[in-house]
Amino acid sequence: MSDDRTRAVERVKDEVCALHAELLRWGLVAWTSGNVSARVVGADGADDLMVIKPSGLAYNELTPQSMVVCDLDGKVLEGDLSPSSDTAAHAYVYRHRPDVGGVVHTHSPYATAWATAGEAIPCAITAMGDEFGDDIPVGPFALIGDDSIGQGIVATLDGHRSPAVLMRQHGVFTIGKDAKAAVKAAVMCEDVARTVHLARQLGQVERLQQHYVDRLYDRYQNVYGQDGAAAAATPATTSEGESA
Ligand SMILES: [Zn+2]
């Protein structure tokens, strides 16, 4: 590996390790469940790689050194530990979605309750229009062990605005342009899953009219936050889309 390549891999290992703390912080995971991965873009014709959590390690034991580096077939290239048992699903997504730089998987309770009921979360609140631009869809039931989970994720999200899919009777997978965006989608997915569930206890929930959803999504994705026109004039501004 070239020095640049090694540095890029080390950077991604740091980032992926740190993002796992966010899953804990936002209450999305129990025990060792859940995982984050990120793509390492191959420069100068080198193949892309992925960095993913090791299998079965407690969250407080994770270090950048314990992260596992795999090729996009899920074969381990670097790391002393076995990669997450969800590695094949992550790898399938990276192989079939070149636009995806990060993948997250959790069994966060409210979103997984919707997945267990096999029901899409209706786009009933403005925050959903912003982040998901649609209902959060349900993907097929699939077992770990081959490409079926990955196929279900890719097929369900193909042409869909939502970066999150509720895999039936399993849990949530989210995608993003990078790992941080995928973590944000996982946090927001659980948040709206809880809110829409609570609203249902109070009465009927109506989906937003499609033209409102379209307007919310367009504004949030193109104008909102520090990434829009104002940021262009002040390039030093940080871009954290989530603050008001
Ligand atoms: Zn799972």
TrEMBL record:
Pfam families (alphabetical): Aldolase_II (PF00596)
Q: Where is the Class II aldolase/adducin N-terminal domain?
A: 14-197
Keyword Plastid listed: no
**Flavoprotein: is it a keyword of this entry?**
no
Q: Give the EC number(s) under which this enzyme is classified.
A: 5.1.3.4
Give the keywords, sorted: Metal-binding, Zinc
Q: Which residues cross the membrane?
A: none
Q: What class of enzyme is it?
A: isomerase
Swiss-Prot/TrEMBL cofactor(s): Zn(2+)
Catalytic reaction(s) noted: L-ribulose 5-phosphate = D-xylulose 5-phosphate
Q: Which NCBIfam families match?
A: PRK06557.1 (NF005123)
- What's the family? Belongs to the aldolase class II family. AraD/FucA subfamily.
Q: What is this protein called?
A: L-ribulose-5-phosphate 4-epimerase
Q: Which organism is it from?
A: Streptacidiphilus alkalitolerans
